[in-house]
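Section 3.1: Structural characterization of target chains.
Under the original work plan, the team committed to producing a structural model for every single-chain target entering the pipeline before any wet-lab resources were allocated. The record below documents one such target. The sequence was received from the expression subgroup and is listed exactly as submitted; it comprises 150 residues.
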Amino acid sequence: MSAMWNQRVQDLINEGRLEEVLVDQRFHNHLITNSQINLRDANALLATGSLEGAFVLSYSSARIAATAILYSLGVRPTARGGHWVVADLLAVVDGVEAPVVSSLNRLRILRNEIEYPQSVSTRLTLEIVQLAFETAQSLVLSCAKFKPKK
């Protein structure tokens, strides 16, 4: 990995937001499978017109796939790091497209607004749900590029 990756990983570990892990191939496969199942289920909900359900599962799929990519590189976020760390660190992973990372971060912020609303002004649109679904698809496909490090 790049010097930027190494520095960012070390900074996040020092902040208590990230931890190094020994990679277990079965657990890595489990993450990818869960991401694929969420994506499949999101597609089914989208077909029924359930925008919120499709969004939640699409975002979950994207986050799990992103976590699988980081896990394959020997790190995972701590409870203190949460979803933010996944998007932040993914930005310095070689092999993940910048627009996908940008979309994941945008969706992370939107998911937070939906889960913890300040008002009823946050509205989901079909376009946003489709963006979430496409972002998840891209990240699930990206998982194939990342074989767990030994």
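The radius of gyration is 15 Å.
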